[in-house]
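Possible regression after last week's pipeline update?

I re-ran a chain I had predicted before the update to compare outputs. Posting the input and the new output here so someone can diff against the archived version. Not blocking, just want to make sure nothing changed silently.
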Amino acid sequence: MGTSLQPTIIDEVDLEAQGEDLDAVAFALYQKAVRLGTWQPAAVDLSQDRPDVEALDERHRAYLERFAAAFYNAEENVARLFGPWVMAAPTTWMQAFFSSQLLEEFKHVEFTHRYFGEVLGHRNFRSALANPVQDTLKDRSRRILRALEEDEESRTLALLEGTTHYMCVIEGVQAMTGYGIFHDVFTRKGLVPGLSEGYRLIRQDEGRHVGFGLRLLRHYARKAPRYAQRIREIMEEYLPLVRVPYGQKIQVNGRVYDPPEEERGVERLMTLYQRRLEDIFGKG
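New output (post-update):
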């Protein structure tokens, strides 16, 4: 029955701030982060999630654990590596906004860490679905850090490449794809409401991250063809990697399972990938 439903596309990107003044957009989203980004991971009610998880069949429980572990690993990875993005931002308010993003990444780690301990009863994050695009972030972070000692053009290119890599491709395409999958496999059925609420709050944060990233990329794509070309090159380079997590088989206790029928990850991902291109470069 799941394959007959139109897959849910979750795209909570915050493009509300008007105008092309990047500093003004950064300040507006920074203020929004101060107001809305204060949710507490410890306050999310997880009381119904343990019985829900215990009632899942082996296939769906394994998928839930691997899915949540992949999100944990991704959040922890970027939280530990994101400092150079803050340092590379060219103005105070851009740095302020990126600083709010850094704090929020650690909050997302805290929530998932709590969920594994209190609901799943372990913290085996190694069982996560493979996610190779995340494995490249360490090199990206180092590249931005090196660019801080280079000329202005090199710093600008490093920031654009890093923004395309993380806020556009990873958060704006891959993560939003994952939230749609989770909604159709679990939330739509009323399962694991605590994890659903946690992901809703995380999406709210990431909508700001992606929204500013897309505005920054659109600004520079319009400014010079060389910037537009480099943004496209990064998106094309990482598209094969962001496709990898979807359709992975799951092995549990000697049994091999296909992912849930509702996953349809590549279909969702390509919809969001095309949307990100239009957000940056316009339609046509």
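Follow-up from reviewer: compared with the archived run. Residues 152-185 form the longest helix (34 residues). Marking as no regression found.
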